[in-house]
């Protein structure tokens, strides 16, 4: 790979150079940027110090942003990624100008890592190979990152099917945990993606000396459509999870009501037994049946009659159904 260089453990460069063109495009990929990597960018490119500070690996921006500086465009974007069983935000910083694209990110964004690895092996497959335009390369990266969102959404859809089966198989307790995980993931993806549309619309105004403005508008227009479609799918999934949660709660409440009904009926049926036992447990001098030869059995019969009377009453009222 003659066009690929690894400057240190964290900085990689890929030169996209189509034979016959009098210019080329450098893709500088930096993972987990630290002090050395920031110094490298400051010395070689002279970026704004505030933008460089925001690009350090341990700095996390609370919102995406676009800033136009003299000679380059600075972007901060967040994309959802699956990490340790939950969806988290992966932050990516872009410095874009004529002839280069600097991308800084953590190693928890597999879609970006995979795309760079494929580009190293075969840059001819890149759309930007034909134009050698940093704007086109940025479009390809953003397109790949948005495509990765569909995988997360598909995983949510599969989990929704699992939850639906659990609910109607009467496994409500297991369904509760999965519903909570689904809700958390959907909320996190929505929170991460909510500003993408406005950021992408700002990129529609980008200009390139290598790619016609109309072509760039078509490319970034596709990204906006992806963003809209992803948001609509998340809305649908949110509604489905809310419906499943309501259904699950209804079944749980019905189950709890049946349990309470059973316990209540049991306590009321036992009430005559407890009452008779309490009455005949008093040490009154003249208690009926106490001195009778069959007194014990007569008391038991009265208790049984009381319980059977309560059962008959409940059955007549259809409270046992």
UniProtKB/TrEMBL annotation:
Keywords (A to Z) from UniProt: Cell membrane, Ion transport, Magnesium, Membrane, Transmembrane, Transmembrane helix, Transport
UniProt subcellular location: Cell membrane
Keyword Magnesium: yes
Record field: catalytic activity: Mg(2+)(in) = Mg(2+)(out)
UniProt xrefs under SUPFAM superfamilies: CorA soluble domain-like, Magnesium transport protein CorA, transmembrane region
UniProt keyword Cell membrane, yes or no: yes
One of the record's GO molecular function terms: magnesium ion binding
GO cellular component, one term: plasma membrane
Segments crossing the lipid bilayer: 263-282, 294-314
Bilayer topology: Multi-pass membrane protein
Similarity comment: family membership: Belongs to the CorA metal ion transporter (MIT) (TC 1.A.35) family.
Role of this protein: Mediates influx of magnesium ions. Alternates between open and closed states. Activated by low cytoplasmic Mg(2+) levels. Inactive when cytoplasmic Mg(2+) levels are high.
Name listed for the protein in its UniProt record: Magnesium transport protein CorA
Species of the source: Candidatus Falkowbacteria bacterium HGW-Falkowbacteria-2
